[in-house]
Hints:
Six copies of one chain form a homohexamer. By secondary structure, chain A is mainly alpha-helical.
Amino acid sequence: MFYHRKELQFEAMPEKPNPVFAKMLQEVIGGQYGEMSVAMQYLFQGWNTRGNERYKDLLMDTGTEELGHIEMLATMVARLLDGAPIDEQEKAMKDPAIGAIMSGMNPHHAIVTGLGAGPENSAGVPWSGGYIVASGNILADMRANLNAESQGRLQVARLYEMTDDPGVKKMLSFLLARDTMHQNQWIAAIKDLEAKEGVVTPSTVTKDMEATEFSYKLYNFSEGEGSSQLEWMDGVTPDGAAEFQYESTPKAYGEIPVLNPAPKYMHNTLPNQDK
Amino acid sequence: MFYHRKELQFEAMPEKPNPVFAKMLQEVIGGQYGEMSVAMQYLFQGWNTRGNERYKDLLMDTGTEELGHIEMLATMVARLLDGAPIDEQEKAMKDPAIGAIMSGMNPHHAIVTGLGAGPENSAGVPWSGGYIVASGNILADMRANLNAESQGRLQVARLYEMTDDPGVKKMLSFLLARDTMHQNQWIAAIKDLEAKEGVVTPSTVTKDMEATEFSYKLYNFSEGEGSSQLEWMDGVTPDGAAEFQYESTPKAYGEIPVLNPAPKYMHNTLPNQDK
Amino acid sequence: MFYHRKELQFEAMPEKPNPVFAKMLQEVIGGQYGEMSVAMQYLFQGWNTRGNERYKDLLMDTGTEELGHIEMLATMVARLLDGAPIDEQEKAMKDPAIGAIMSGMNPHHAIVTGLGAGPENSAGVPWSGGYIVASGNILADMRANLNAESQGRLQVARLYEMTDDPGVKKMLSFLLARDTMHQNQWIAAIKDLEAKEGVVTPSTVTKDMEATEFSYKLYNFSEGEGSSQLEWMDGVTPDGAAEFQYESTPKAYGEIPVLNPAPKYMHNTLPNQDK
Amino acid sequence: MFYHRKELQFEAMPEKPNPVFAKMLQEVIGGQYGEMSVAMQYLFQGWNTRGNERYKDLLMDTGTEELGHIEMLATMVARLLDGAPIDEQEKAMKDPAIGAIMSGMNPHHAIVTGLGAGPENSAGVPWSGGYIVASGNILADMRANLNAESQGRLQVARLYEMTDDPGVKKMLSFLLARDTMHQNQWIAAIKDLEAKEGVVTPSTVTKDMEATEFSYKLYNFSEGEGSSQLEWMDGVTPDGAAEFQYESTPKAYGEIPVLNPAPKYMHNTLPNQDK
Amino acid sequence: MFYHRKELQFEAMPEKPNPVFAKMLQEVIGGQYGEMSVAMQYLFQGWNTRGNERYKDLLMDTGTEELGHIEMLATMVARLLDGAPIDEQEKAMKDPAIGAIMSGMNPHHAIVTGLGAGPENSAGVPWSGGYIVASGNILADMRANLNAESQGRLQVARLYEMTDDPGVKKMLSFLLARDTMHQNQWIAAIKDLEAKEGVVTPSTVTKDMEATEFSYKLYNFSEGEGSSQLEWMDGVTPDGAAEFQYESTPKAYGEIPVLNPAPKYMHNTLPNQDK
Amino acid sequence: MFYHRKELQFEAMPEKPNPVFAKMLQEVIGGQYGEMSVAMQYLFQGWNTRGNERYKDLLMDTGTEELGHIEMLATMVARLLDGAPIDEQEKAMKDPAIGAIMSGMNPHHAIVTGLGAGPENSAGVPWSGGYIVASGNILADMRANLNAESQGRLQVARLYEMTDDPGVKKMLSFLLARDTMHQNQWIAAIKDLEAKEGVVTPSTVTKDMEATEFSYKLYNFSEGEGSSQLEWMDGVTPDGAAEFQYESTPKAYGEIPVLNPAPKYMHNTLPNQDK
Lengths: 275, 275, 275, 275, 275, 275
């Protein structure tokens, strides 16, 4: 059950409007690695947790915080859109500066949302539930989370560089900091779980389930041997079970597959029409 | 530039057909973490690499291998669909065993692909480019890759448990092994990059860009203090820069946001219609 | 800024597992009119509100409640999936009852989420930001909200009829009640706003913007005059501005459109290739 | 069965081309609330109607008209794209006016459709069947229809403000008028049905199905009591069954959910890995 | 402008309900090659036609007919769903025949559409504007149309085999016939246009635009020389300009690409982190 | 199984960067008819082939080549993005030339991919598995392939006209040539298969399955008789079985459909609520 408090977690006040940057900011609201993704990913992971209540609490803490980040960013987008000059476009386009703004805006901000944020990315593509994962395996999911915070912080850093508005920069510097924390916490959790379970997940795969003779070989499927020269290739694998092996010319272990003809009622092409 | 060899990388021969399991297997072909995802993710990452040619080679090696995994799985799906009893459904439905098969099949396998695999997941949702990422930041991307191999291996393990066909199990045991290797290699790469750059990515964010007073606090946004009791909470953060801090009652640092009214030409609701 | 409390808003405890019904319930989590939709719709509407703070508060109250409904439903789905018999499918399929379960489950519940809920509908299609709207016009949005609660309550009523598990029915009876409240509150808000602005939205369209001679005619584009016999057709329009008119044989007011040829550099078909 | 007449329902002739506005207009062709949505929504509702033939006729009348609106808009888009200066972009970009046009166009209009309209919105996102609903409950669907016409008319009004081309304005003034009619007719239908069935839909939910003690309370999930001050909060609910109640501090009626561990064959994280 | 007539173009009356087959039929309503696709594809092509009015008329004739096919199929789906036994599922699942029906139905038919058709395919994935094309080049588009009618007729043939309901078969036999006509007409149009323009489209590409030394070679990128043994490989190309050439070992004409490092403000990985 | 060679199949070196054109080029990477589509379409068709190994080889040859085309285009996009001026946008926007670039870029190229290509089209919409088909019927699929190469070559020709960069033009001239070859080869294959099977596919539909009285009539559903004047309308149908017939006023062969009321547990509107 959730409660809402009206104050923002952090300030979201630009120095002045900028409708083109408002479009850009949508990426970290409704993009693949935006705040909708991390909020929903952590919450679904929390709700699906079976029997590890401390990690569940951590997920609920962080997912709930991210809901507040969507709010901050949505507020910032609305303010960046304040008074956007979108009427009488033809006249406006004669002024190149305004022309560039109108060309560079997300049309949804003008036509659909009435100068507000929407659940979509910087190209206007709607957020998709297909972006997130909650698998029931906490180590796997913590890696998903570390990935999300890594991509997310990278995107925030790029947005920071793209603007010189001090108000926008201030809010982004807060988000960079929170992403630093979230990377740290997921890394710590991963280390903790890896220490208990081993680094290869799921750790509950028994040896008889796995064709272990294929578990430590790097196959050189792209000509050139650069990958073999990576320093760590010359050592023990992170799971401690073997040394990395390198196969310069990967073999095929299977045969040339030939499929049976389809039954007649499928209306597939009959065999031997190519002769 | 790519070349194709007709032999499969590994055998893909079920003992007998099973159209319901063919539907399930689609998850690891065209699902969020299926082979299409890892193939395309690694290849786009490789193509976008700027100036780290050994890692580019590693990405191209692995992405190219994954193309062969789609092939293996597609072959397996086609064989599991051999002779599926899909004609004269009404008659068939009277036999409960056949009824369950017909109810449990992916209808696309019968109607669209003619007993072949398709680029979609186990629910029949088409593969989406929105599943993958290639960011230009190799550490961030390696974490995406480790995530993909972790979720992917978990899904393969579950599929392994769901079948008792020795041929299917054999192929899945090969995929489990390759995912072990790929987890190991991405972990090794991550360690290598973290040693050079630090664990928080992107490492090129300078201190003046980040509001570091917020970089190490866990905010307790979900009541209950379970997360504070995680063992690692009581120590140094993985980036070595601080100790984890815990804020039991998170404060708001922002104010209650009030937005300006929209210009009249937006036809938004005028202010004070709620009084 | 949001806070989370661990208790559910209402109980979510089925009498016994039912993996097929777990699939059905996904519709009201991640479907077009599920709880993700209403939560996100109300929150985005709230965040985008410009100058009607009481309605903003109402939206935030309700959107925040809906987040808790996702949680309740996700918990119920997880419990309906408890111990689902998904291993060794082939054996299982020989028992028709189990066969029907396995055929009727959402494969994602087994392979992807590990017996948990996901952000998708009853067919396994991921939730999309394209389902929702926040337009900046509160009357328009309240109609979107009433629509969502009407479709949503209808779906919950159907799900209620589909089960005989008393625990599931109990939770659904709570959701039916909350949807009753939400329909009532949006209807009251709509009446309030209509009283102030008029029933046709946006009310700020001036008469010179609209070709009012076309504003009150029902055109009989489908042969048969049933629509003209609807009782209300014989009276004043709800906006009070006119009487409904009925045009039995709709006229064309435009001409046959003929488009100019494309410039040569478009490589469209040249004119007169059809002669 | 449908017939087509070559004349447009109304004129669609701009004074001069404007490729950027052509992009904007796509919103009301293939956006969430564009003409494709209303056409398909009304037609599917009509086709699914079971035993209310006058409403079915009304739906078919209106849905068929909307098909003609797609046509009008597609014609307008094609004319706004006439002779768009899309060759030799580099040269063109040196002229800022042309640069802004090229930057502001939908690239699909140049590359994919050859200066014609496409089934997509103003951001280039393809139309989705997920936008529409046909539920079999006419009151619920009429609310969906009123919502669609409200959002749609709002978008047309905004587009009207964005242009000063008299030909475009003329066509949009016609669409504003038709949306006025369609709002009026759906409102009248809603009133008619509400008078017969009551305002809460579906009206066939019996009292024993609903936990009516929760049917009339507004829960204050967002701090601040603005919503309680809305005038209508102090009165009878629109369904006439009760008075609105306000709960300032919403209680939890459920317990803290704890889920059972997953079976071993799911390879979820085992319990107590967080200690 | 469109008109609707209430009669169906052809009968759509099954002998008895069959909810599982109703799910299957959705493929030819809202699938990639269903009637929504051909209707919208032909209509958009017609609307975008610039100066070939006879072909435009042909497209409008056929697109308008296809609208009536959606109607026929939607009617059939509604009747196949008549009285589907979807209440009290748990009880029902004990009867294996009913269990198989409930497992095999599209849940949307029960929960969302109220026993009616929806704009989605047989897996429940919503129809997408991304399925269709209208390019402005009529020869290219006629090939798209022939493709659509070929895939569509194949799917109808498969559905015909899957049922033994004489009423369903009758309707499908009509659709098979119409697809025969539509294949014939698009083939005739293609021949007509190829005779005027040549077979390679767009025919307006001038020789200086094309690297013609690469225009007639089959590159053997998949080992094994089966393709070279296709009879037609040993002859003149269909455009009459050359003979097919076969290159057994395809050469690379480009170099190994090395990309420049990204500017610092992109926060990509710096060069040489792999050493 | 695939192998990768580092050299590009052809050069991909622009004379100078052009971030707006980089956005445009995405259409032929990840658009409906881009290289991802043809690669995946041909490979899935090859993998699904049952018993026509020469055509399978042809499909694998061509699909594998197309993988190399994605690579070429991705490389070109990366180079067109070299040093894109995306920092400190506000300053930049004051220079109209830079303003137009920033407005015209795909924001993903800056924020998400770090100056690299992504799996999406020119509007930023992710590639979808719903674009492609592999049906098991080779004639049908060859028509899909010819369609793809026709639309694809048209798009490349348009892109060629849009640039004056000699390096970009050179690469596009290579792609035009390869598309010429691929159109030729699919046309030859189609002719070959049509000669063996007949032109109407699937050819295995027996006469008793088809209502042949409807197989050769053009119905004039769009007023005006232009289509009847197409020259080929006056002759034998391409399948040689009949002459084209033209029905000026298409009849309805079905009746007005009236559906049964839904069972009460569906909560649909009861019959006769419209009276």
